[in-house]
Predict the structure of Glycerol-3-phosphate ABC transporter substrate-binding protein.
Amino acid sequence: MKKVSYLLIFIAMMLLLVACGDGEAANSDRDGPIEITYWYAWGDKIGENNENLVKQFNEMQDEIHVTAEFQGNYDELQSKTQAAFAAGNAPEVTQNEISSIETFAKSDMIQDLSKFVEEDAEEINMEDFNPGLMGNSYVDDKLYGLPYLRSTPIVYINKTMFEEKGIDPESIQTWEDFQLVAEKLTDDEHVGISMPVDIWFYEAFVAQAGGEMFDKNGKIAFNGESGVEALNFWKEMVIEGRMRVPGGEPQQAADMARQDFATGRAGMYFSSTADLTLMMQLAEENGYKLETIMFPENEKRSVPTGGANLVMTSGLDEKKQQAAWEFIKFMTAPEQTAYASSYTGYLPSRLSSVESDTMQELYEEKPQFKVAVDQLQYGNARPMIEGYPEVQKILIEEIQRLMLDTSLDAQDVLDQAAERSASLIK
């Protein structure tokens, strides 16, 4: 009987513990916030903007808590996200550099957002997103990302140097104008422009020459007539000493080109509109005035859009999905879009943001911010061919090879890049 009594007491205690545990779990589910992680790229003002917005989201409600984590540049972010997804510990929300959207979508690493938009049709107005930024958001007519921190390349100008040389920035409209101005800026101590070999810039010049990186069937076209023309234009400016193209790793080369411009060695500099607040700060620190202008045109005026979309990783449970969606909605809402644009220089991705008092006052006070918005009418989507992220690295290597050894032939270099890339295109 004692054994039976002890057994009954033991069972009763276990049932009580289970009940208490279930109650605590229920209370935890009910009272504690849903935890999600957000990965982002780039530091400086861009990183500060991400951290600031996440802090705002966490403080405005207590149902969802977001932990923001910096992951380096876009290439590093992409590699880390792929590795984390394979290991089963990917963040719930991350940035996808726009050319990698298709790769992630077709690998089932990111969630189709169409159903969330349909369910929230009254709350989120898709027509308010700038149509010029939506080209890299869809794969097979399904929505996989919303524009966030989007950009175009622009030309940064040392206006003080221009004034000293008697040059009007508005005189730069064509490739020929650009070349002539670079010649006027170049002397024993200065160079017309310093720029890294960046695939984004090459895409712009190929399009301006009337070409494309891939044809309508997804076949390589960057080694066609327009691609060669664009590369020969760069080569000629390097030979003439009007353009400096730092070598080394892409990030190192970009840092060196920025340093050339920041310290007044170069009169012009290609970079993203996302760098605007930083470049204005550097100009002030180094005692010169900064201006921005659109990319010059050749057969036409054209620039690729850039930056990232916010995406939700796939395989989340319903609660995590809803939490991730609420965060994505917040980050891409008009008010947050205006905040991010004014803080960094990135394009406001919502049409209503452009017309807001915040942005209109900014454009009035600092017209440098409006150049990229005006240029967006000439914007086009970046290639989203599967394998393109790897192809970009090959192209950069081959173009750098030509910039360092201008005795090479542009056609041969691009053909070599095409041959190396052929097996990567899907």
Observations:
- Residues 1-5, 23-29 have pLDDT under 50 and may be disordered.
- The two ends are 75 Å apart (CA to CA).
- The first strand starts at residue 34 and ends at 40.
